[in-house]
Amino acid sequence: xxxxxxxxxxxxxxxxxxxxxxxxxxxxxxxxxxxxxxxxxxxxxxxxxxxxxxxxxxxxxxxxxxxxxxxxxxxxxxxxxxxxxxxxxxxxxxxxxxxxxxxxxxxxxxxxxxxxxxxxxxxxxxxxxxxxxxxxxxxxxxxxxxxxxxxxxxxxxxxxxxxxxxxxxxxxxxxxxxxxxxxxxxxxxxxxxxxxxxxxxxxxxxxxxxxxxxxxxxxxxxxxxxxxxxxxxxxxxxxxxxxxxxxxxxxxxxxxxxxxxxxxxxxxxxxxxxxxxxxxxxxxxxxxxxxxxxxxxxxxxxxxxxxxxxxxxxxx
Length: 316
Prior knowledge:
The protein is mainly alpha-helical.
C-alpha cells in the first residue's frame, strides 16, 4: 500500500507538472493579453511532431532547442498576421480565429506526417532508472520532466516579477496607452508574449512526445484539461496554474491506481446504496473508471465555490 501511494504521488507529480508545462504558455498569453488561445494545444501537438522529426535527424538535445524556437516564431506570425487583425472585433472573434488555427494545425500535421501514431524513443542518455524504491524503479526521464517544469516556472516567475521586461509586459495589458506614450511598441510586446507562450507549448510537446505518445489526437486529449487547469488555478495566475496542475495530476493518478468501487468506498464509511436500482448500479462503478472526469468535477466545484479560481482575480 505504501508503494502504491508513493509511486502514485510521484507519477501524479510528473503528470501534473507536464500539464503545467502546457498550461503555462496559455496562462501567460491570457494573463498578459487577455486572449484564450484555443490553438494552444495545436502548437503543443506541432511541437511534438517537429520534435519527432528533428530528433530522428540530429538528436533530442537539438530538438529541445530548435523546436520551441520554430513553434514560437510560427506563433508570433499567427499573432502578427491574424490575431492582431481580428482583435478589434472582440473576444468572440479571437476565439473563433484561434479555433480555426487549431483545426488548420491538425490538418497540416495529418497531411505532413500521416494519421498513424509516431514512435518516439526516450533519448539514450536519459533512458535508465534514477533510483529504486519498494522493488520498483523511477525513470530518469521523468525526473528530467520534473526539472524542466520547475525551471520553466522559475524562469517565468522571475521574468514577470523581477525584470523590467516583465513590468512592461504586465503594464501593456492594464495600461497600453501609457506604455505606448513611454515609447514602447505595445503590439510588438503582445506578439512576443504570444510567441513565447506558443514556444512553451512546443517545448512541452517535445518532452511529452516520448511519454504520452505522438498522434494526431494528442491535442484533444490534453487540450480540454489545460483549460480546466487555468480556470481552477485562476485565469492569468501562474502560481495558480502550477498548483492546479499538480492537484489534478495527483488526483487523477491516484484515482486510476485505486481498484475499488464507489459503493465499496461508501460502505467503508458506513453509507449504503441499497440492494437494487440506479444507485446500486452507480455504486458498482470503480474509482478508476471515473478518473477521466474528476478534473471536470473539480472544475464545477471550484466555479460554484470560487468563480475566479484559486488565485485568479478575473471572473471566469
